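Our example pasted here:


***
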Amino acid sequence: MYCVKSPLAIEDSIKKSRFIAIIFPCQTIHEASYHLNRLHLEYPDANHIVFAYRIKTEKGIVIKFHDAGEPCGTAGKPIYQHLEGKNLINLLCVVIRYFGGIKLGPGGLTRAYGNSAKKVIAASQLTQYIEYVEVIYSLDYKQLQVFEYQLKKLNGKIIKQEFSDKINLIIKIPESNALKLANLFETINRK
């Protein structure tokens, strides 16, 4: 699976209609809704604001697409098919249309929305999706420096720390490195 690194917009004109395709990285459905609400405020005179998203949650991948007044299946679904076909996750793809006076027909709309999504995806910088886990550790003060060094090498980071007689940490680390860190922590504890 892949993600987009940063938002990107491209614009195209098809038979006098203006299509603006925008892609956003989104970690939650709430974040996708925020971007959609903002776009409705930013483009209040647009004829259609069509979208599709694929967002990984603890319950699985949540998908949604919306035709925004275009004939059923001609707008949101073609966008979604490109997201699914490229195995993209945690993103929102929006295509904003300003009608230019020439009807495109169902096939033309499907191609226009699908190609707009395809172009913005192709222009985006994609990165491999990494599943992260949160892990709790309790350390002695003398262990912290070595632990932080190893954590950084494994692409983990401390997201919360509490200091008392020990240091209690909540860390975020790629799932593939969690066992390596646990083994290193055992080695640190034996010293």
